[in-house]
Amino acid sequence: MDALADVIKLLRPSTVLLGSMSARGRWGVRVPEQPGPTFYFVTEGRCWFRSHDGGPVELQEGDYILSARPLSDSFLSEINAQTELSDDAFKARHTVDGEIRVGDDGSGPATRVLGGLIQCDPANADLLIGLLPRLVHVRATEQTGARLRALVSMIMDEAGDTRPGRDAVLCRLIEVMLIETLRREAAWAPHAGLLGGLADPQLAQALGHIHADVARGWTVGELARRVGMSRSVFARRFSETVGVAPVEYLLGWRMALAKDVLLRGRGSLEEIAETVGYKSASAFSTAFSHRVGCPPSEYALHLQAGRK
Questions:
Q1: pLDDT per residue as tens digits for the range 265-285
Q2: Cβ distance 175 to 8 under 8 Å?
């Protein structure tokens, strides 16, 4: 069982394209705060990118950026260029033929950037934020860069059409884009959390066992034996790498699955409890209330109220 694919599938990601921008000469644009992770793709030219808490990053044609917490992402022709907030009034002034155009019209080669907001199922949207590094920059020259370039092209094509099955196709494309990005990150540099666990072959096996049989009463000792490690070494490495103890991860994943089912109104409490490893509906309700903050019977209403 592939734990990364399980998490991405549970999120049911899709996208709303934020639009494209064409810029020439000297310019600077600041993207308004977004409610979720945002991807950007430089389709032409070059520019600089700066997030609210990071230094400038030079982008070339074909480069891809995934910003996990887009509070004040900026694109600039030069590092010291002044930026202007791309709010609704700005867009109204600068949109021509469906594209935002900034800078000095006709001055030098154009830079074009495409942006898209990733939307996830509200039940477990926080899982993606916990999984993503703050910023991912994939260069066009990387092997993953070529794959992402093809995916972004298909996303643009599908988002701009109304063919049957459009939403389902977009969801699958965004799933693949996220998986490509995250497995590249797991191999590229050490990370904490689930991404770090997936980069460790033995921990990845343990995570796969948990996901394959979430209702099983897994113990630290049994998981350690399954992956060929001593109990103490496994427990320490899992906690240090993933950030929680193995049993804590199991309980968290059970709750994530339960929230997904509850939000869709599928199954009785007894059926959900059995599916995620609890012997009774009351035991499940107690555990759910403790972790989520409200009883499972009130969860959907609680989530809707919190989003207002």
A1: 878 999 999 999 999 999 999
A2: yes
